[in-house]
Amino acid sequence: MRNTGQRVRTMVAVLTAAVVGLSGCTVVGGDAPDEAGLGRHRKAAPQVVWDASPASIAAVGDSITRGFNTCLVLSDCPEVSWATGSSAEVNSLAVRLLGSARVATHSWNHAESGTRMTDLPTQMERAAARGPELVTVMTGANDACRSSTSAMTPVDDFRADFQDALRTLRKALPKTQVYVASIPNLMRLWSEGRTNPLGKQVWKLGICPSMLGDADALDAAANERRATVQQRVEDYNAVLAEVCGADDRCRYDGGAVYEYRFGTAQLSHWDWFHPSTDGQARLAEIAYRKVTGNKP
Questions:
Q1: How far is CA 180 from the centre of its chain?
Q2: Who's near 95: CB < 8 A, 6+ residues apart?
Q3: Residue 220 class from Cβ within 10 Å (0-12 exposed, 13-18 middle, 19+ buried)?
Q4: 104-113 burial by CB neighbour count: b if 16+ within 10 A, else e?
Q5: What residues does 39 pair with on adjacent strands?
């Protein structure tokens, strides 16, 4: 009995040591969780590095990017576009990034006057076909500039169309960078342009009636109408920031265009609403700072 008991105690000791040894391996070995429950060898997600020197650019958007009413009345003038224009006066984003000799062959303007956010997915598809390394986006003013406040694009629709446009780009070009400009401060444009009698006459032709209609009216209804349009522009800009912010290769301007104080020198003297050549140059400066800066 004594020998048997001794053998049993010896076997128990051996088994206990084995169990402890195995438990120790589980705690400190391989991919076992640490005290916080996290894997010790989990790989960090690769950091996306923003390229401040893209070799090609495509632009999408509305009349601002087409240089509408800048050179001739009621006409596009893409050569003065802030994004892809060749004008030395403007010194566009494309000229600054690519050099004037490469603008004609390595930049493309797919913006269209009068378009809204709902048109952006189609423009983005055409832009993607060029294979650009950077796409610039400036659109949304026409979603707020409607015949009435009730006709403005709903914010949820605006968001859905912008998301669709980015998905369209990403499906074709996963690594292409995107620069998104904020929508200008339409209230500011009204306050500047209403000082010019000619501008107010041109506005009557139907330029942004929700904001610019009855330009001299200062009654409660007119003030409320303009405030409603202004709030919608701010809501749209919030959407641009949110949706762009969810894409690692998208950079929003942080509201820089919205905050820029366009004066009469920066407004077209054909309609006192669209940017003049000088205004286009200011937009190009903002874009260049945002695209080449170290911070989004």
A1: 2
A2: 85, 86, 88, 103
A3: exposed
A4: eebbbbbbbb
A5: 33
Q: Are 235 and 155 within 8 A, CB to CB?
A: yes
The label of the residue with tokens 């986006």 reads 137
User: pLDDT 10s per residue in the chain (296 long)?
Assistant: 444 444 434 443 433 443 334 344 333 333 334 444 444 455 665 677 899 999 999 999 999 999 999 999 889 999 999 999 999 999 999 999 999 999 999 999 999 999 999 999 999 999 999 999 999 999 999 999 999 999 999 999 999 999 999 999 999 999 999 999 999 999 999 999 898 888 888 899 889 999 999 999 999 999 999 999 999 999 999 999 999 999 999 999 999 999 999 999 999 998 999 999 999 999 999 999 999 996 54
